[in-house]
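Input chain follows. Return structure tokens only.
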Amino acid sequence: MKALLVSPLLPLSFWNFKSILKIIKKKVTYIPLGLLTVASLLPRDWTLKLIDLNAEKLTDEMIQWADLVFVSAMIVQKASVREIVDRVHGLGKKVVLGGPVFHHGVDRDFMDADFKVLDEAEITLPRFLRDFESGAPRAIYRADEKCNISDSPVPRWDLLNMKLYASMSMQFSRGCPFSCEFCDIPFLQGNEYRTKTPGQMIKEFSDLYDHGWRGRVFIADDNFIGNRSRARNLLKALAAWQKARGYPFVINTETSIDLARDGELMRMMVEAGFKTVFVGLETPDKNTLQKCGKYQNSGVNLLESVRRIQRRGLEVTGGFIVGFDSDTQDIFERQIKFIQESGIVTAMISILYALPGTRLYRRLKKEGRLINVDCTGSNTTGSITFIPKMGIETLYEGYMSVVNYIYSPRGYYERILNFVKFYRPAKKRSLSLTDLAAFLRSVMYLGILNKGQAQLFYWKAVLQAIFFRHKCVSEIIEHAVFAHHFRKQTELINGRRDI
């Protein structure tokens, strides 16, 4: 059997960094980890090919080569999935669909799919394969239970052209013990926190290393520290592994703000090569945090917690939301003030989004307030999916005021300076040859060809790094480069309104 695995196109967004990929000579930011895991679950005697539409074109010859075409997608990739299915069927081939997109009520858009293998592939894909090989596959495969991810296989790194990607990805855990009203993780992966074993993870790191990767690795967990004891066990093994190989990987992940309370855990993360953590901070308003179920944030001083993490040598990137029912009109200024003072340079600010499956979606539907049932899943384009208490115009204009300020050249540069005031890297990270080449290209694109305030503040950041902030030189230059992407993303939002 010949199987073609296709990763659909991702639209422009806050996280794909398409605007700066040419500076670092890459095509895509993150790998299609789900498809690489699916590939490991397919029979070893099958011939496999992977096509990532974010990096390369899908030709008719590729589709005609395959006996089956597998597509896995998130909801933001829905439009691309539709195009792929139509092309595959147009060439007389069969398609197997899976991924989180089908958990968000879009099954009606793909009634013509040959096979849907849903929920966790570790459970449903073997069932499909057994039936397929016996000649009697069903149209839909679902699972009521969650898998034991300690049985999940090592991704098929050999299918990747690693030169196309800025970062590799892997996964340590699934599930989250929290139940925030707006979050779909409990719906998708459950509240039970499941992890791989340290030995399993070290095998994945080793396999990735043996395939030649050096550089960034994103551990794609929703909360890496959901079980601190298990996280510590992994960090201890990973620190020894990294040290023995000269720290080949720079690791990023997502955690809850609880990390700030555990100095030992932060120390272990830094020793294991972690550099950045994404934290869902959402809002500085404690009343709103309690009402939306974000209790883990409501009982702490968020600003001091962020600074505590920064002082330990971990950079914080953050998610922020406006549009909660309890938000008053001063929330926009309060968000700007918090983001600027915290020095969270990479701040994702979004309008509250009602994803199907969440408690928020069910509540708003019951209240008759949903206005956009064709959910795109994109929460950083100014899209409004419900009637907000403060009014649509007020919410949209307030949201844009936050975005335009924090990603203005002045606001962004101010945050870089606040960041380096509190950030204490465990050791100075020197620029590699790859970093140096990217920096020189940034000088051309951003320091010479780019004009106006953006050019001025780019050079201010670079000069700060060179003459005054030696220990943070790589971080400052990196943020100066990323400023270009965020300005482009802001221009995109300003020119488009999806409500």
